[in-house]
Automatic annotation (TrEMBL):
One MF annotation (Gene Ontology) recorded for this entry: uroporphyrin-III C-methyltransferase activity
Native species: Novispirillum itersonii (Aquaspirillum itersonii)
GO biological process: methylation
Lineage: superkingdom: Bacteria
E.C. number: 2.1.1.107
Protein name per Swiss-Prot or TrEMBL: Uroporphyrin-III C-methyltransferase
Keywords tagged on the record: Methyltransferase, Transferase
Amino acid sequence: MSRSLGPVQIITAASSDPEMLTVKAARMLEGAGAVVFDDPALGPLARLADEAVVLQVAPWDDIPGLVAALAREGLTVVRLASQADAAGVACEADALRAVGIPVGSVVAGAPCAPQPHRAHSWLDLAFPPLFAAAV
């Protein structure tokens, strides 16, 4: 009898502060069977998955291979990645899909930092393409 493949969910996190997690990311961690992360700063977030197997790996390890092996065991796997490594996360997701592992959504673990507000002049509002670079 073959096991069903566990889904892989990916959370990108900009902060290791558990209080900064989005509700969706927190729920994904709570339902995880395994959590894989490589950035030591994300350890506090990984520990939110109480019942999960938590694995910290080195960035040069075969992370997609490890995640695929866990998914083949039927575990719901959460790949916890640094938000700074968006290109690497996309490559990992593509590698998993290429070997038949279902990849769910890529979820931002924490909202983006607020951007400083810049007061608009009437020229910005009337002629944005002309004056946006000059301000």
